[in-house]
Design goal:
The chain is of the alpha/beta class and 452 residues long. The protein has one domain: Rossmann fold (3-Layer(aba) Sandwich), CATH 3.40.50. Helix content is 50%, strand content 11%.
């Protein structure tokens, strides 16, 4: 019974297979092959389409990569340009305290670039011959009237320390004080006054004068707010000194101020790292060995003999004022060659300037600072007049008003009053008191008249 059921269930499947076999047998072989080829072709078309889509996607991706690369290149170029511009701004010499469009700063940059270029044999200056000389007062530092360092130091010394001198007679002290009191804004810093300076400091050791000059520099000038005397250096000129030093120039300060005082000023100034004491030349006071100050010559004595702690003493004698032609003599005597750059501010510097310009084997320039700034400084010089005067002499004029972007540190400002003579406050107070007494007397007379 079970076998019968099994045979019955298989029967329909068998019939279907027989039917299908019979149908297939009746289809031509070519038709089957064509259908297969058609299916394969369709598959190929689909594959080609897929490949083309892939190619398009790759092309799009490559285009995107190219765009990204171009963008990155643009960003890099912009960054490089910004860095180059920043470097150019940062490296442009004389751009911190000089005005942006200063023709003087530009001429100085051009000059230094020219003479330091080894590929320009006609203008190149060897390092050993790159010598620049600077006057100090009025060129590097403020000297407008009573901000003149050594003059005010002398006035202060006569007022505070002169009476302590054991070297000077009372008559000498009286004379020196009268000289100090007679100094007015129109005074001339000539040899006669320098001789008085030498007399006032007689008996001091060289070190004592140096220390006194440093100490005085801490006192404040009445001509400016928040300015000590040592703060009077012009920032643009200090920047220039550093610029020249960085380009292997040897810097000398050639001053009409006494040498020891000048050394003390320079050693405590913004240019202290660029000018050594041996490169300071100034007016000379007579100096001799302690105990032999009155002897005409010290050549027969020996310093430190037998372990003695000898001192060098300022005798009160005078050697030479370092102005006008004397500046050229000092330069020849102590430097031994002509400078290629010279900087000054007055007629007493013109000899030094011409010494740099005349018959120089190298390209040379001379610059004159003109005190024409009445807003930030006490300068009273007329630019048109002074600049033309200097141009006619072959010098390049420097305008404090137009070339100096900043003269002093920001906290230093011009005072309301330029100068008040010693004792002026007491005199003013006394005059006010007298005036008040006169007013009271007039009131009393009026009261008496009314009572009568």
């Amino acid at each position: 019974m079970s076998k019968l059921k099994k045979n019955c269930s298989v029967l329909p499947l068998t019939l279907a297979l027989l039917t299908c076999t019979a149908f297939t047998a009746n289809v031509p072989a070519e038709a089957v092959e064509t259908a297969a080829e058609s299916a394969a072709a369709e598959e190929t078309v689909a594959e080609v389409a897929a490949a083309e889509e892939t190619v398009a996607e790759v092309a799009a991706a490559e285009e995107t990569v190219a765009e990204v690369a171009a963008a990155e290149e643009t960003v890099a170029e912009v960054a490089a340009a910004e860095d180059e511009a920043a470097d150019a701004d940062a490296e442009l010499p004389l751009s911190e305290y000089w005005t942006e469009d200063s023709p003087v700063a530009e001429s100085l940059r051009d000059y230094v670039t020219m003479v330091t270029n080894e590929d320009d044999p006609d203008n190149f200056i060897p390092v050993k011959d790159r010598i620049a000389v600077f006057d100090m007062d009025g060129t590097l530092t403020c000297e407008t009237f009573f901000t003149y360092y050594d003059t005010m130091m002398y006035i202060d010394f006569c007022d505070t320390l002169l009476d302590d001198s054991e070297w000077l007679s009372e008559r000498d002290k009286k004379e020196l004080k009268e000289v100090a009191d007679s100094i007015t804004p129109e005074y001339k810093a000539g040899e006669e006054l320098a001789r008085d300076f030498a007399r006032a400091y007689s008996g001091m050791t060289v070190q004592e004068l140096y220390d006194h000059a440093v100490e005085f520099g801490q006192k404040e000038t009445a001509s400016f707010n928040n300015m000590r005397y040592i703060d009077g250096f012009y920032l643009p000129m200090a920047e220039l000194v550093e610029y020249l030093y960085d380009n292997d120039f040897t810097i000398y300060v050639i001053s009409g101020t006494e040498r020891t005082t000048t050394r003390a000023i320079v050693a405590n100034s913004p240019i202290k790292d660029f000018v050594t004491p041996s490169h300071v030349i100034g007016t000379e006071f007579e100096i001799k060995l302690e105990g032999h100050e009155k002897t005409s010559s010290n050549m027969d004595y020996k310093y430190g003999e037998e372990g003695k702690d000898d001192q060098l003493i300022i005798t009160g004698g005078f050697v030479q004022k370092n102005l006008n032609a004397n500046k050229t003599i000092f330069i020849e005597r102590e430097i031994g060659q002509r400078p290629v750059l010279a900087f000054g501010n007055s007629g007493s510097d013109t000899s030094m300037m011409q010494y740099a310009l005349i018959d120089n084997e190298y390209p040379s320039e001379a610059y004159m600072v003109v005190a024409d700034d009445t807003e930030r400084e006490w300068g009273m010089q007329d630019w048109d007049e002074k600049s033309q005067e200097y141009i006619d002499q072959g010098f390049i004029p420097v305008s404090m008003k137009e070339d100096f972007a900043q003269i002093y540190p920001e906290e230093i400002t011009k005072a309301e009053t330029q100068y008040q003579a010693p004792g002026a406050e007491e005199e003013e107070a006394e005059e006010e008191l007298i005036e008040e007494e006169l007013v009271e007397e007039e009131l009393e007379e009026e009261v008496l008249d009314e009572a009568a």
